[in-house]
Amino acid sequence: MKNMVRVIAASVIIPGLLLTACGGGSSSSSTTEAGAPASAGAPGAGTLPANEPDVNKDKKVVIGVMSPGDTKDKGYYQSFVDEANTYATANGWKLVVVDKINPANAVQQARNLCRQKVDMIAIGASELKDALSAAKEPQCKGTTWYISGGQGVTQTAEFTQSLDYINESLYVAGYAAGLILKENGGKKAGYITGPDLQFARDVAKAFEAGIRKVVPDAEMVQTYTGDFNDSGKAKEAAQAQISQGVKVIYPYLGGATDVVTQLANEKGVPALTPGTDRCGTPGAQYAISVIFSPGAYFAGALEDFKKGTLRMGVAREWHLGKDPVPTVKLCKPTGDQAQQLQTLIQDIGSGKVKVDEAVAAGK
After folding, report:
1. Is 323 part of any domain?
2. 277 and 298: one domain?
3. Residue 273 is part of a domain; what is its CATH number?
4. Cα angle vertex 186, ends 184, 188, to 5°?
5. I need a surface site. Which of 63, 106, 142, 327 has the fewest CB within 10 A?
């Protein structure tokens, strides 16, 4: 699909955006320095670029945002731009947003942004990690670099990244779905996603293990449509799963998320969000918000950038039960569901529950 480029002045309101990102950082998050073990991250780790946030000293702050997905998907990819726009509006900055980028074009798109004299290039997902190779090129000299690394990109001195862990968020998401299944007497959950990739399989595995902690004999129906944004394929998959009797459904999708959820709403099947807080927002109604959006982590980096303390060459780790995000919330809990969910989150954060072992065991 042809790349879409938008220049957004700080005073412009972007129509139709849902402010779904959950902002804020936490001093409890750990950092990993380039070439150092995970325990590194003492004050002074990495390198601090001069003159943040106006690193090129042209008396304006411009952030170039790169995304592989649709930044109007009302979810995961949009949250990244929402957070950047919040900071731009508050501080008189400007954004240059390039979305729907083919990973094969990532380096060239990064070079184009550098030529526009941006102060920061912010990459919304690790699919575009190859763009980081442009950081050493002459046209990108002095630019700061940030990437939402997910499970992690090999750290170098040129950029900073945020890390989170699939098993933590998705195991707890499954547990929350299991609480709903237990309440409605269901034994079957649905999982719909796009391409059949390893990370999507990892998500499914953790989600299913969490469900089975509550409902040991639960079954999960998985559908891989091949496209995160194709609403027709996603709706067809949802109809098929609902006809098979799923009693909770997880549209782990991009632009097709709300189409699935709206159908689930019509059929009385609870749904989960793929990364953002949608409890109580207009439109599609969600039973569970699974919050691990890139915007949630980007908020912490932008706050440091604003203060002039964002260091390159380090990774910031975000852990469920230790930091404000990631987290999972039931939108309308009943009985002691909220307390059960919070207890699990705290037990994972404290290390009482070894989540990787639980996922490996499938329960």
Report:
1. no
2. no
3. 3.40.50.2300
4. 145
5. 142
For 336, left (φ over 0), alpha (ψ -120 to 50), or beta? alpha
Residue 30: give the domain boundaries.
Answer: 4-164+294-317
Q: Enumerate the β-bridge partners of residue 98.
A: 5, 66
Average pLDDT of the residues in 258-284: 96
Burial of residue 133 (number of CB atoms within 10 Å: 0-12, 13-18, 19+): middle
CA 78 to chain centre: 10
Average the pLDDT over 65-70 and give the result: 92
Q: Is the pLDDT of residue 124 over 60?
A: yes
Residues 137 and 59 placed together within one structural domain of the fold = yes
- For residues 104 and 66, state if they share a domain: yes
| DSSP bridge pairs for 32 | 315
Q: Please check whether residues 190 and 149 belong to one and the same domain.
A: no
Question: How many residues make up the chain in this entry?
Answer: 363
Query: Model confidence over 213-258: pLDDT tens digits?
Result: 999 999 999 999 999 889 999 999 999 999 999 999 999 998 899 9
> Would 277 be classed as within a structural domain?
yes
| Residue 324 counted as domain residue | no
Describe the strand order of the beta sheet including 248-252 as a list of residue ranges. Answer: 219-224, 188-193, 248-252
Domain tally, the chain: 2
Any alpha helices (H) in the chain, and if so which ranges?
76-91, 106-115, 166-184, 198-214, 231-243, 257-267, 294-307, 337-350, 355-361
- Which has the closest alpha carbon to 176: 44, 270, 245? 270
For 284-313, the three-class secondary structure string (H helix, E strand, C coil) is CCCCEEEECCHHHHHHHHHHHHHHCCCCEC
More confident residue, 249 or 294: 249
Q: Which amino acid is at 259?
A: V
Cα–Cα nearest to 333, from 348, 343, 324? 343
